[in-house]
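Retry 2 of 3 after timeout on previous attempt. Resubmitting structure tokens to design endpoint.
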């Protein structure tokens, strides 16, 4: 089998739009290769972001993916090019072995915050080289990133500051499970991960098992759980999604799932759309206690 790699280099807001395009038209039930792979480069030797460079990639199995899906991706990129300053996509044809190496080559172990280390599963030996850090091993698959996107970095660093030993955490939109695993590593006593995509639920379960946390992290299909799932509420609720989705969750009562004194950790917010989330928080009577930013991306911590 041959694969076509489609890659686009862009800034944060354009990257969000390109990811949405790839995830919409190159993902189908049961196809783990679908969706976008985000590579963020430009880090210095200690893991600080010096000059952010975002490259979004997707891979199309030549001869097997329907022509209609490829056409929609090509048309979508053309229209996005009218809205954002993005160059023409780079196309590269790969054999299966080259494809397997290509997407994995974009990921390297990455220190996050003061105590965390994201480690691709195939580089597990790197854990021994950083004994002072808590490892988060991930086998992302093609549909989910390894957590190197700024939104995930911001969210993980916020969890490091706000998850206390014994806390219960709710991870809404778990994706690969990176935030759920992070919370468990930081001492959370229980973690519930939800996602509307069954592939994400399977990825969260697999990555939790990979980290030896399969009993601690529960993953289920869906979005906002019923209040009865945990009558006392969760001490921390994390949502690394889009600003519009976070606002919808807030309007649907996400804050009512918080335990007394609980915190919301909200990321995936592109700066021009931050006001959407800020307004939703005000409508719910919530205050922002912490705001961090990396490039165009914002993470908010809020509470009653």
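Retry 2 succeeded. Sequence:
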């Amino acid at each position: 089998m041959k694969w076509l790699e489609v890659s686009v280099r862009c800034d944060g807001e354009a990257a969000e739009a390109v990811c949405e395009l790839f995830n919409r038209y190159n993902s189908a039930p049961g196809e783990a290769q679908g969706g976008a792979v985000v590579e963020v480069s430009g880090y210095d030797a200690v893991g600080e972001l010096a000059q952010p460079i975002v490259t979004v990639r997707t891979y199309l199995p030549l001869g097997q993916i329907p022509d209609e899906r490829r056409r929609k991706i090509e048309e979508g990129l053309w229209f996005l090019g009218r809205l954002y300053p993005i160059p023409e996509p780079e196309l590269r044809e790969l054999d299966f072995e080259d494809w397997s190496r290509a997407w994995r080559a974009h990921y390297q172990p990455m220190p996050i915050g003061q105590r965390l280390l994201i480690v691709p599963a195939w580089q597990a030996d790197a854990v021994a080289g950083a004994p002072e850090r808590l490892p988060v091993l991930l086998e992302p698959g093609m549909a989910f990133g390894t957590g190197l996107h700024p939104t995930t970095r911001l969210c993980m660093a916020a969890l490091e500051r706000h998850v206390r030993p014994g806390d219960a955490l709710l991870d809404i939109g778990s994706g690969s499970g990176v935030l759920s695993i992070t919370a468990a590593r930081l001492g959370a006593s229980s973690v519930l991960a939800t996602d509307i995509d069954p592939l994400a639920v399977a990825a969260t379960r697999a990555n939790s098992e990979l980290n030896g946390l399969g009993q601690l992290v529960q993953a289920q299909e869906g979005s906002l759980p019923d209040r009865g799932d945990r009558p006392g509420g969760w001490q921390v609720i994390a949502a690394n999604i889009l600003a519009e989705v976070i606002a919808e969750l807030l309007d649907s009562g996400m804050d009512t799932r918080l335990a007394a004194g609980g915190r919301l950790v909200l990321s995936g917010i592109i700066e021009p759309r931050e006001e959407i989330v800020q307004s939703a928080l005000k409508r719910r009577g919530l205050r922002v206690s912490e705001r961090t930013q990396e490039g165009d991306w914002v993470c908010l911590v809020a509470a009653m």
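Attempt log closed. The helical segments are 12-25, 67-83, 96-105, 150-162, 178-185, 198-210, 243-251, 274-283.
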